[in-house]
Write a structure and sequence with these properties.
The chain has about 325 residues and is an alpha+beta fold. The protein has five helices and 15 strands. The strands form three sheets. The chain has a seven-stranded mixed β-sheet, covered by helices on one side. It starts with 16 loop residues before the first strand and ends in an 18-residue tail after the last helix.
């Protein structure tokens, strides 16, 4: 399948779907994505049965499965978390297969957590294996500073330093993605890796952790048209709007994807969990969620309006 062959909704049973911690799409099978909504890329069965499993596993940190029957055919849907060294969910894998059949090969993936003040990078055992280590060397679970950057192919160090700088100045809403090459520790063979993660803050608003996953992507390709960057298009459209605008993903429990106005300018705090609904007063959340979901299901030609109380920056 060439890059242009992947069309929205062309999910094939057995392909693993990979989403990051905030529910944004990173991959389907051999196709790579840059944080789109998984709803736009899955077929009908995927939207009905995989999206709920992805959300459930992201919330609970536990693997789950569900048997279902469609058109007289029995299927099994399953999901599993990708946990970071601290036990926090960094990503989720999910797929469905016909009963009695096997899923495609599971992606080679591991999780990492960078202690921002110390620049100490903690890895899961799976991530060491992605790099070609049979096990963490001598019980090692972390790297001091970005010393693991030295494992990258010659010339890749400056680009990774740029990624680190983006993490240090990023927001929770910013999904950082970077493709790079390494020489495997066991064979010396060159392989392609792709990291994706976000910046997480302490109560003072200081960057505390950079958390995410790294997956091996040899033989993968971008599953979208590189000539049309959806993110850049939406960014430009928002910047042209003089009113404060926030874009939230209904498939990800109203996770904030884009905003054209700093939250503090409207005297609100960016929710630490990345959910728009967390900025709404608890007594108004049910009504606001129903209002937004209703507007998405049955859009009106004009603006839909509601009123709600919000949690101010002062709390």
């Amino acid at each position: 399948m060439s890059q242009s062959d992947r069309e929205p909704g062309q999910y094939r049973a057995g392909e693993w779907v990979l989403v990051e911690a905030q529910g944004r799409l990173l991959g389907i099978g051999k196709s790579l994505f840059n944080g789109q909504s998984p709803r736009t890329q899955l077929n009908t069965l995927g939207r009905r049965f995989l999206l709920p499993l992805l959300a459930q596993t992201a919330s609970t940190g536990e693997p789950t499965s569900k048997a279902f029957t469609e058109a007289g055919i029995d299927y099994l849907a399953q999901s599993e978390p990708i946990l970071g060294p601290s036990g926090v969910v960094h990503a989720v894998l999910a797929c469905y297969v016909r009963e009695g059949r096997r899923a495609d090969r599971r992606p080679e993936i591991g999780a990492w957590e960078w202690d921002a003040p110390k620049l100490r990078t903690h890895w899961t055992p799976d991530l060491f294996r992605v790099y070609g280590y049979p096990a963490p060397p001598a019980g090692q679970s972390f790297w001091e500073a970005p010393e693991w950057f030295g494992l990258t192919e010659s010339g890749g160090f400056p680009a990774l330093m740029e990624v680190l700088a983006r993490f240090q100045t990023g927001r929770l809403a910013d999904l950082q993605i970077h493709l790079f090459r390494i020489s495997r520790a066991d064979t010396g063979a060159i392989q392609r890796l792709r990291l994706a993660g976000r910046t997480y803050f302490d109560q003072d608003g200081t960057a505390a952790w950079f958390r995410g996953v790294t997956v091996r992507v040899d033989g993968h390709y971008l599953g979208i048209d590189e000539q049309f960057n959806q993110q850049q298009y939406l960014d430009a459209a928002l910047m042209l709007n003089p009113a404060p605008v926030c874009v939230a993903d209904l498939s990800g429990d109203l996770r904030v994807m884009l905003n054209n106005t700093p939250w503090e300018r409207v005297r609100l705090d960016m929710p630490q969990d990345g959910l728009f609904i967390s900025a709404v007063h608890p007594e108004d959340r049910t009504r606001v969620r129903a209002f937004l979901q209703g507007a998405a299901i049955a859009p009106s030609p004009g603006p839909s309006i509601t009123q709600a109380r919000c949690v101010a920056g002062s709390g």
